[in-house]
Amino acid sequence: MVESHSQWFAETISPDLIQLSSIKASYYSGTTRYQKVEVLELGGFGRCLVLDGKTQSAESDEFMYHEALVHPALMAHPNPANVFIAGGGEGATLREVLRHDTVVNATMVDIDKEVVDLCKQYLPNHHQNSFENPKTTLIHQDARQFLENTTTTYDVAILDLPDPLEGGPAASLYTQGFLDLVKSRLNENGLLVMQSGACAPTNYHEVFPAIHNTIETLFPIAECYQVYVPSFAGPWSFVIGSKTHSSARLEEKYIKGEFARRKINGLQMYTETSHIGLFALPQYLTEAIKLEERIITELTPIYIV
Amino acid sequence: MVESHSQWFAETISPDLIQLSSIKASYYSGTTRYQKVEVLELGGFGRCLVLDGKTQSAESDEFMYHEALVHPALMAHPNPANVFIAGGGEGATLREVLRHDTVVNATMVDIDKEVVDLCKQYLPNHHQNSFENPKTTLIHQDARQFLENTTTTYDVAILDLPDPLEGGPAASLYTQGFLDLVKSRLNENGLLVMQSGACAPTNYHEVFPAIHNTIETLFPIAECYQVYVPSFAGPWSFVIGSKTHSSARLEEKYIKGEFARRKINGLQMYTETSHIGLFALPQYLTEAIKLEERIITELTPIYIV
Amino acid sequence: MVESHSQWFAETISPDLIQLSSIKASYYSGTTRYQKVEVLELGGFGRCLVLDGKTQSAESDEFMYHEALVHPALMAHPNPANVFIAGGGEGATLREVLRHDTVVNATMVDIDKEVVDLCKQYLPNHHQNSFENPKTTLIHQDARQFLENTTTTYDVAILDLPDPLEGGPAASLYTQGFLDLVKSRLNENGLLVMQSGACAPTNYHEVFPAIHNTIETLFPIAECYQVYVPSFAGPWSFVIGSKTHSSARLEEKYIKGEFARRKINGLQMYTETSHIGLFALPQYLTEAIKLEERIITELTPIYIV
Amino acid sequence: MVESHSQWFAETISPDLIQLSSIKASYYSGTTRYQKVEVLELGGFGRCLVLDGKTQSAESDEFMYHEALVHPALMAHPNPANVFIAGGGEGATLREVLRHDTVVNATMVDIDKEVVDLCKQYLPNHHQNSFENPKTTLIHQDARQFLENTTTTYDVAILDLPDPLEGGPAASLYTQGFLDLVKSRLNENGLLVMQSGACAPTNYHEVFPAIHNTIETLFPIAECYQVYVPSFAGPWSFVIGSKTHSSARLEEKYIKGEFARRKINGLQMYTETSHIGLFALPQYLTEAIKLEERIITELTPIYIV
């Protein structure tokens, strides 16, 4: 192990758990205005983007995360044309959005231009030239500021943000206030989807049920799902807030039809069957969601430790 | 991290991946006639049984594995009365089997008496006194030898075996020959279920589809499912071989009814909803199963590296 | 490596250096009134006493440290009869002192009775029953308090203390004030010796030269030496403060004679030749000692980070 | 720790000991015709050359090793003019040789041109342009082949070779046969010096005393010494074989005089005082040398595990 490799990437998953991955190559290591950035090739994981020591996505399994993040919400919208993405520096969220032939414009707002430029250069398999797609609008600005100053509205808003760490750049975006702002920029049938952190039996309670609870205060439909992402060392949760359409209740037949109509192909995880699996939560998560009482506001923030 | 704890348990998940967990207490460390045994309390995972350096089950999440191993097969049998378990030293598989009120006899055959005795002593939350249940028959013998010499037949056979490591004690039990022997000891509506190794995007190809393929040569119905187990550092796969009944196609309503009829309670993961999720595989696994051509025999064995 | 062992002890030597040793057995793990205590058997190092996560001494190489701590000072005194030891819980410093036939009384003051009791029980090769020697007086009290309240005086005082960590129990004993108190309890030809921390090229500057400088303000003779201790992951320094006799200038012939006269035997490191080697410092330490200007007082303390 | 850094270099010192150093930068990683090469900047150690996973020298403490390797032998020769170096790719051994004003020619034979070229590019503080010195002759050839085909003779031969690993490129150079070949190329007052592996209490017995014993069969004078090198995680041994002059018995006064006569300056470790310290071995090494009976020949090789 340690014998066959001499360079290792260590990620602290929790105070009691460290994951060591062999480093095959080190492409970049530096600090932008907002965060520490590393682009590494890790054994078994391929090229990885690491921000502030946390793996954001790995070449070998980012499809698990990005397909799960994008397609349940876009499928639930009858005709997603305008899509808003907050974060998503690698361009892989954008890549998945553009698979839907119905999409006319995808506006991605990521505050950190340097990170996006590094991803453009070092992660070609992530973005697959999505940044050059004529449907793409790329803006480097604070997401809140952007939304406050636009009158454009969207069919789907995708919040692909770093975890809410105390003092981190994304913590204030996991609040009722910001989510209400996003809602105000959604069209009539609009949906919002966001990554909502780890949801293993040992750590799901940190933020996931509270994010669901907060979204439930704003939207008539709030739905949770999960997918397992190896490079995140556990299952990952997502919450959808929807004005009209349920994603959880979509039928296999409908999804299959939309796959054809929207000319979607090239997926590695998401199918009409696995869609059902994403929403079929284990008992401990269903319970946690039911029992949760916390609502995340700027005055009562919740952080991941 | 390393600062807050000084003792760490290191498990080599693959040549490129090592998982470090803090050691809170060390209850036992020794070697039986068959294997190296450690009973440790790990930070975040609780009491763990470790055989030959591999975590077999952790107090905090063994329910994910054991509920997934037992209930899909038992639910698919209309009235499981006699159940056979190979392996399962911790007694947690036994515990789950005994939750079904229909079960009259559960025969557990584990070759390593010393391991079972250590589990009895150190893992009370795993077995919850299942070994003392009057329905339990506990035998310390080689599973193959036991089955060759019995005329008893069973409704469900559960193979809760260590991974097929080259030179390891379980490798010869992952073969067409042994599985055919198990089949010959099943009643008319009988089912067999076995754990079939890790199934993350990076390692599912090692044995899982080949085990499915092998079972498909023996049974009219062969079905795959998976569940994520944090202490195994990834999703875990299972294969069912069934003579008559499908588990994958069970309906929520039926499962809910059986929950009541069989007086099952106390589960943390498995519900009628999560049953559906277990079988809703991602595209990459469905494909892998379709494309697999290997059949595991004693002459063409397959090992986990 | 990580493959052949599953349990590892991790010691943070510096923010940039971690030493991992395999754990062969774990004898004790707990917390006394003063500190966290572990007694471990480490691969290659044998039984080790670990306080607050730092290895205090290892069975396989504690002789390097303890022989170096004790004999240079005792040899430099023409007839050491009464010896004072502060700290030294394992009993190995005591063991070395008692090798000198001239010693009539060895008074050891260690504040932590629980640690000493654990050492008595678990580290027989360290103390070799020195605590039962009729020449031994063992007292559990704060060293400063003991010296303030005694009128007894000593020929040699040995300060075998934990490193001066900020907030740690020993920091206030590395000050001019305390060292002056020790000096006041020394007889006419008396010497004091203390361990003064790591002295590798990368970390010698932390406290070692400052301790020498501080002792030089109190004693006419201040002398430094070092020895390499594998389980400390580097060379270790010591400072002698002496009223009359130089240890550095002792001649091989004299030491050889005293070995016979004092009936010393059983040593593994210290000889008349290696005595010379201890004091033959590399250029970078000689320079550092010359250039040092810091004096450690209670108002201007120095800590090891 | 692991928190403040995400990239770590892991070196297996023994099956029971792993040293982790933080990686500050990764300059090169590749494989030459002979070996795996990494050039890394490690926290606390500076720029390091790593061959086949083993640290060969670190910017922060290579002076400990290289000054100890070169000066004791060169000082013992009354007028070293022609010096032969086998290995020494970093150019630091060469740098130390060239400090002696008496040296007219330094011939360095290192088989691996690629490694030397990488050192020229990435390790300027190691070689300090020694390769460009007009007294230097640099040859890329097998050392044995070179010596067999030259009639040139040398005053001092320095064997700066990788450890004798089974199957490694240097193992056959640690034999009586090769050392006799080196001896045959030495002038009348000639000396040979070689690094002879780790010499901590836990591992000195592997090869060090056997190398001394082997050299003693060839030279009238065979002398051992050691120095501690932090980045090697322990003390390191050297053996001198000399035709006429003793290094161990050089007097401080003579060394001081030669320092002036040979216009040596810029040293960080070696002085007339530390020279004495190098040879003042601890009891356990003196004993081990006395008791050693192995002689290393091509038929009875000895490897480091």
| Quaternary organization | homotetramer
Helix segment tally of chain A? 10
Strand elements of chain A, count = 12
The proportion of residues in beta strands of chain A is 25-35%
Rounded mean pLDDT of chain A is 95
Q: What's the N-to-C terminus distance of chain A? A: 30 Å
Structural features, described:
4 copies of one chain form a homotetramer. By secondary structure, chain A is of the alpha/beta class. Chain A folds into 2 domains: 8-57, Spermidine synthase, tetramerisation domain (Spermidine Synthase, Chain: A, domain 2, Roll), CATH 2.30.140; 62-291, Rossmann fold (3-Layer(aba) Sandwich). Chain A has helices at 62-76, 92-97, 113-122, 124-127, 143-148, 176-184, 208-216, 252-261, 272-279, 283-291; strands spanning 7-14, 17-31, 36-42, 46-51, 54-58, 82-87, 105-109, 136-139, 154-160, 186-198, 221-229, 234-242. In chain A, the strands form 2 sheets. Chain A has a 7-stranded mixed sheet, with helices on both faces. In chain A, strands 1-2-3-4-5 form a 5-stranded antiparallel sheet. In chain A, helix 7 (208-216) packs across helix 10 and helix 8 packs across helix 9. The longest helix of chain A is centred in the first third of the chain and has 15 residues, at 62-76. The model of chain A has no long low-confidence stretch (mean pLDDT 95). At the C-D interface, strand 1, strand 2, helix 9 and helix 10 of C face strand 1, strand 2, helix 9 and helix 10 of D.
